[in-house]
Write a structure and sequence with these properties.
With about 80 residues, the chain is mainly α. The chain is built from three helices and no strands. Helix 1 packs antiparallel against helix 2. The longest helix has about 40 residues. The radius of gyration is 17 Å and the shape is elongated. The two termini are about 35 Å apart.
Amino acid sequence: MDEEKKSLLKTLGMVSTMGISFAVAIVIGGFIGLKLDAWLGTNHWFFFIFLFFGIVAGFRNMFILARKEMGSGGPDETKRG
């Protein structure tokens, strides 16, 4: 396989990983919110709160993956873990 195809596959893999991690973070946040609302009998308050947290976590995951792929982590990359 030539280098151009390898580069294309690597890029497609990175983009799909970013999309999946974003979607999973939102789904997990919404699910936790729904379960808390059902358990506590609240009227969708926790759903919206945890959905917001899921969206924030999804964007954070995308940022971390993009920074890792671009190689601009710097010397403190190991400290953030």
